[in-house]
Amino acid sequence: MLIIPVKDGENIDRALKRFKRKFDRTKTMKNLRNRKHFTKPSVEKRAQNIKAAYVQRLRTQEEQG
């Protein structure tokens, strides 16, 4: 549960902005989306390997030219 203390005389927009930032940092929505459907561990590992290879390819291209 997120608790955002609002000080006396504080602008509500500022408090809302702090809430949104804190909400994003807890990765709540990301966890909910991941739990919507089950992904096999082998599929997750394969996707992770593909992403790592892609990032590595980008870095080598950046070094070369």
UniProtKB/TrEMBL annotation:
Keyword field contains DNA damage: no
Name the record gives this protein: Small ribosomal subunit protein bS21
Keyword Ribosomal protein: yes
Domain of life the protein comes from: Bacteria
Residue ranges the record marks as coiled coil: none
One cellular component (GO) term of this entry: ribosome
InterPro entries (UniProt xref): Ribosomal_bS21 (IPR001911), Ribosomal_bS21_CS (IPR018278), Ribosomal_bS21_sf (IPR038380)
Family: Belongs to the bacterial ribosomal protein bS21 family.
Species of origin: Urechidicola vernalis
HAMAP family: Ribosomal_bS21 (MF_00358)
Keyword tags: Ribonucleoprotein, Ribosomal protein
Pfam family, one: Ribosomal_S21
